[in-house]
Design goal:
Keywords: Amino-acid biosynthesis, ATP-binding, Histidine biosynthesis, Hydrolase, Metal-binding, Multifunctional enzyme, NAD, Nucleotide-binding, Oxidoreductase, Zinc. This protein is an alpha/beta fold. It has 25 helices and 29 strands. The protein is about 40% helix and about 20% strand. Helix 15 links the parallel strand 19 (about 480) and strand 20. L-histidinol (HSO) binds near residues 617 and 686. Zinc ion (ZN) binds next to helix 19.
Length: about 800
């Protein structure tokens, strides 16, 4: 390091005073420079290995710009505020990239540990050629009797070229001309390297060693590339080893390879060269033994180097790239392109011998029943521990957090977290006509059923003569609809939420769904439904982060008034969180968590039907639960049912999920229909299926359920997709207090009243009496003042 560290304000100074670049440490003042100005300085350096830092005192650079600087070659940030340093560390700047001011000096720790006194930072306008020379010369010492300074000459790759000597004059000349100029002891005169041989050196930097008694000149050797008078690269001979030796050999062959030689063929046939690179790369990945790995890697380097040489790219260019990449502080995930990932053969459903077994308990065994009907969910506190930081991150960092969390939880790197309407046509690629028709039919049935529920009329009741009360509906203006996409993508949920939102007249409909790993998009079916219901945006995110983005809004996600839709425990917990946060001002539909079903069947029920219904919900997720309540079932029927579940489950692609779900699911045996319905009401299932004789007549006994499926030919899947009812339903037993999604879920109701003088006469005294007992005199007075003016109260009324 030199005794002074130049502080720059722009690129002009470098043009006027190019010798400034000889300092291997430069600081750019961030106060008056934009990010681009600073990066221009980095690029205009002849020696990219220089340390260029930025002084962040009173700088007006935002966090993103600061990070961009560190990603593009700035080595460290000079900072004198501990708070700002803590903030930068929080936004992802490694502490080693901060040069902190402490005890009158800046402490630089990146690559080399040094203290830089504040006085060493000198504004470039105050540096002249003489002062620059003097600062170097005055810091040098020598113990040689001839007063010369030992000077090590190295190239830009830090390979030593030779040991020479300098005196004050040669140093000044070298700095002034930025070329290699030394003092020749044999000729006792200034030695301008290359003056006769033509092998002139460009001087890149001048450094002092740790105790100031030796100089290092970093040079770029020009001419034939020889430093030594014996025409070798260094005074110790040519560089034969390693990649530089190989580069020289190949450069030589490139210009002189004999016709017909393999190297000539390689340089002339780019396809052959590409094929060899791929072949060697593959062999390297297959090598196992240490010596084989080294062997294959050497081959790969050979062909890769041939490609560099053939295209005029040098190892130095590659190393510069490595340096810049090494300095980056934010990195891409580094996943391989899909074509390089070994395709897994589709796994055949795992046929294990282990029975998929539905446990049986008797309704009389209260303890066993209690255990059987306990839902397999994580405790709220545990799940909130995971969800809270996610929400806080989104609230604080908006889109940036959404992108980061989507990369973390969904494995998708996005540029932007939102797809805006009108949705590009290519997003519908893959949507078949069959599916379009199926979705259209479902949309139409859901529309019919939900339109019939639509309340538009104003309800009016005259409670007393002159007192008219009314209630009128209004749509919730902005709604956020969550469409699950974790273990399965559910376009059906898009229509179950989007259609009633449209029917109710919501002004803005925002979809959110996790993007697919394969291409970072949501499925074409979801996009199709979004288009049909007039969604304005699709937020490409899932889980708690998607919920938080819609509840609080981000740069690109609009804040909504209500969030609706089912999801896993993270989604449900986040919905519960935001509805309790008054800062969010956001309501939710209900807790609609992992799917569940309770089937009541009797001895006459078709075991295949019953098993298929249980499995249709079991396949949703390992946290789903299915309960079969049997009315007076014989032992053989129970066995048949258990076998049917096992056999059908083995045929399912999601058998592994089913197996885990069935492990916490049960058959509960009841002795009567009455007892069965008591059991069901106590469980309050999301879906209740009645596969019993005269099922319809039992609907009156249902007190708590999300949706009921009546009779043997009403599989639950019909409600999931196409019958017209809504499939977004309360789970966890919340059917006790919540309805499933319906048109009114997207509406709110405003009441109004109009009171005439007659009306006031009829209710005024009652109002005053109650206000008096509550001690709220202003309330009482608002009536009293009017009634008095109307002459409805006797004089002196108190
Ligand atoms: N009650 C209903 O009306 C109803 C309707 C349809 C679906 N469902 C249920 O919805 C659920 C859908 O769940 P899903 O997981 O398939 O999709 P999902 O879209 O609900 O959740 C996936 C998201 O969860 C997040 N996530 C995953 N692991 C995480 C972790 N460890 N920490 C934080 N976040 C994490 C990810 O961001 C991911 O995008 C199922 O349980 C299904 O049964 C319920
Ligand atoms: N059964 C789910 C509600 O719990 C809804 C659904 C969507 N797709 C398939 N099923
Ligand atoms: Zn389902």
């Amino acid at each position: 390091m030199l005794p002074i560290v130049p502080v720059l304000n722009g690129t002009d100074a470098l043009k006027e005073k190019p010798y400034i670049c000889l300092s291997n440490q430069i600081v750019v003042d961030g106060k008056n420079s934009s990010k681009d100005d600073i990066l221009e300085i980095v690029q205009s350096q002849p020696n990219q290995a220089h340390n260029v830092s930025v002084l962040l005192k009173d700088a007006r650079l935002d966090d993103d710009e600061v990070i961009a600087l560190l990603n593009n070659g700035i080595s460290t940030l000079f900072i004198d505020s501990a708070e700002y340093a803590a903030h930068l560390i929080e936004v992802g700047v490694p502490s080693v990239r901060l040069t902190m001011f402490k005890d009158g000096a800046y402490h630089f720790n990146f690559g080399q540990v040094q203290k830089i006194q504040e006085s060493q930072l000198v504004d470039v306008s105050k540096i002249s050629l003489d002062s620059f020379n003097n600062s170097i010369i005055s810091s040098l010492k020598t113990d040689r009797s001839d007063g010369l300074y030992t000077t090590l000459v190295v190239d830009e790759n830090e390979r030593s070229l030779g040991l020479v000597y300098s005196n004050k004059e040669s140093i000044s000349l070298a700095i002034e001309t930025q070329t290699g100029i030394y003092f020749s002891r044999s000729r006792n005169e200034i030695w301008r390297k290359g003056a006769t041989s033509g092998n002139v050196q460009q001087l890149l930097s001048v450094e002092l060693d740790c105790d100031g008694d030796a100089l290092k000149f970093v040079v770029r050797q020009g001419g034939s590339g020889s430093f030594c008078h014996l025409d070798t690269e260094s005074c110790f001979g040519d560089f034969k080893h390693g990649l530089y030796g190989l580069q020289r050999l190949l450069q030589d062959r490139f210009s002189n390879a004999p016709e017909g030689s393999y190297t000539k063929r390689l340089f002339d046939d780019s396809e052959l060269l590409s094929a060899k690179i791929k072949e060697e790369a593959e062999e390297l990945t297959e090598a196992v033994e240490k010596k084989d790995i080294a062997w294959e890697c050497a081959d790969l380097f050979y062909f890769a180097m041939a490609r560099l040489v053939a295209n005029g790219v040098s190892l130095e260019d590659v190393e510069q790239n490595l340096n810049v990449k090494h300095m980056k502080i934010t990195r891409r995930k580094g996943d391989a392109k899909p074509k390089f990932i070994k395709k897994e053969e589709p796994v055949a459903p795992a046929v294990t011998e282990e029975k998929i077994f539905l446990n049986v308990v008797s309704a009389d065994d209260k303890t066993a029943v209690e255990q059987a009907v306990t839902r397999p969910i994580q405790k709220t506190a545990e799940i909130m521990n995971l969800v809270n930081p996610i929400i806080e991150n989104v609230v604080k960092n908006g889109d940036k957090a959404l992108i980061e969390l989507t990369a973390r939880f969904d494995g998708v790197e996005l540029e932007s977290p939102v797809l805006e309407a009108p949705f590009p046509k290519e997003y519908l690629e893959g949507l078949t006509d069959e599916l379009r028709d199926a979705l259209d039919l479902s949309i139409e049935n859901v529309r019919k059923f939900h339109e019939a529920q639509m309340q538009t009329d104003t309800l009016t009741v005259e409670t007393q003569p002159g007192v008219v009360c009314s209630r009128f509906p209004r749509p919730i203006e902005k709604v956020g609809l969550y469409i699950p996409g974790g273990t399965a993508i559910l376009p059906s949920t898009a229509l179950m939420l989007g259609v009633p939102a449209k029917v109710a007249g919501c002004k803005e409909i925002v979809f959110a769904s996790p993007p697919r790993k394969s291409d970072g998009r949501v499925s074409p079916e979801v996009v199709y439904v979004a288009g049909k219901v007039g969604a304005s945006k699709i937020v490409l995110a899932g889980g708690a982060q998607a919920v938080a983005s819609m509840a609080y809004g981000t740069e690109s996600v609009p804040k909504v008034d209500k969030i609706l839709g089912p999801g896993n425990q993270f989604v449900t917990a986040a919905k519960m969180y935001v509805q309790n946060d008054t800062q969010a001002l956001c309501s939710i539909d209900m807790p609609a968590g992992p799917s569940e079903v309770l089937v009541i069947c009797d001895e006459e029920a078709d075991v295949d039907f019953v098993a298929s219904d249980l499995l249709s919900q079991a396949e949703h997720g390992i946290d789903s639960q299915v309960i079969l309540v049997g009315v007076s079932l014989s032992d053989s029927k129970i066995k048949e049912l258990q076998n049917a579940v096992h056999e059908q489950a083995l045929q399912l692609p999601r058998v592994d999920i089913v197996r885990k779900c069935i492990a916490h699911s049960s058959i509960i045996l009841c002795k009567s229909y009455e007892e069965a319905f008591q059991m069901s009401n106590q469980y309050a299932p999301e879906h209740l299926i009645l596969q019993i004789a005269d099922a319809e007549s039992y609907v009156k006994d249902v007190d708590h359920a999300g949706s009921v499926f009546v009779g043997a030919y009403t599989p639950e899947s019909c409600g999931d997709y196409s019958s017209g009812t809504n499939h977004t339903l309360p789970t966890y037993g919340y059917a006790r207090q919540y309805s499933g999604v319906n048109t009114a879920t997207f509406q709110k109701f405003i009441t109004s009243q109009a009171v005439t003088p007659t009306g006031l006469e009829n209710i005024g005294r009652a109002v005053m009496s109650v206000a008096k007992v509550e001690g709220l005199d202003a309330h009482r007075n608002a009536v009293k003042i009017r009634m008095t003016k109307l002459g409805l109260l006797p004089t002196g009324f108190e």
